[in-house]
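Structure in, sequence out. Go:
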């Protein structure tokens, strides 16, 4: 099997709503109804510009939240979902819209169908880049699925918490024995030890709460 990642520069409402800002749209499910009409459910993170979302929607419904706005509806697509299904691909969610473009993740059982998918998408879209890897085991698919859902599991972290927990993991602070001390970690960020520990504990609590129920 092959895992395909591709990114297109989009002109649709989802792409345009994330252009020149820090927002993201996480598409947790989308499927082709007929022709280029797609039904979807998605989440807007870091954006309050809802009007941009409705440009090419036939219908759209919003549910506002403290951190996330959920929306669902039917919209005109740009042949990507149609191409995925016609070439025998299987979408792996979530898809992500950010920085004025959209990223898609697709499984193909053989290289020929994957290349047909790429060429088909190129006909109607500005394909910015694509990459693929060969998957030889179910474990490999599971690892990819976990990585794709990282955006959902980590959305509640602040940017500082993301940076601190990322550095703590990569530098070995979370290892046993530790490869870096709290003093050294605090020095990297030019903040106090209690502040670093505060961010680490907050990040750990938010991440663990995604997997462990109270």
């Amino acid at each position: 099997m092959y895992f395909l990642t591709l990114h297109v520069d989009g002109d649709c409402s989802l792409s345009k709503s994330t252009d020149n800002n820090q927002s993201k749209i996480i598409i947790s499910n989308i499927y082709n109804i007929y022709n280029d009409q797609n039904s979807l459910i998605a989440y807007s993170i870091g954006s309050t510009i809802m009007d941009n979302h409705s440009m090419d929607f036939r219908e759209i419904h919003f549910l506002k939240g403290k951190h996330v706005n959920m929306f669902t509806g039917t919209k005109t697509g740009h042949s990507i979902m149609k191409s995925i299904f016609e070439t025998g691909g299987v979408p792996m969610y979530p898809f992500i819209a950010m920085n004025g473009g959209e990223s898609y993740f697709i499984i193909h059982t053989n290289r020929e169908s994957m290349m047909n998918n790429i060429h088909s998408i190129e006909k109607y879209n500005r394909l910015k880049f694509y990459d693929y890897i060969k998957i030889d085991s179910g474990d490999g698919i599971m690892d990819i699925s976990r990585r794709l859902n990282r955006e959902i599991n980590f959305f509640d972290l602040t940017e500082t918490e993301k940076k601190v927990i990322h550095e703590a993991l990569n530098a070995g602070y979370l290892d046993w024995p530790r490869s870096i001390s709290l003093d050294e970690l605090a020095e990297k960020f030019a903040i106090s030890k209690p502040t670093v520990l505060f961010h680490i504990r907050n990040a750990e609590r938010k991440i663990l709460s995604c997997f462990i129920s109270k």
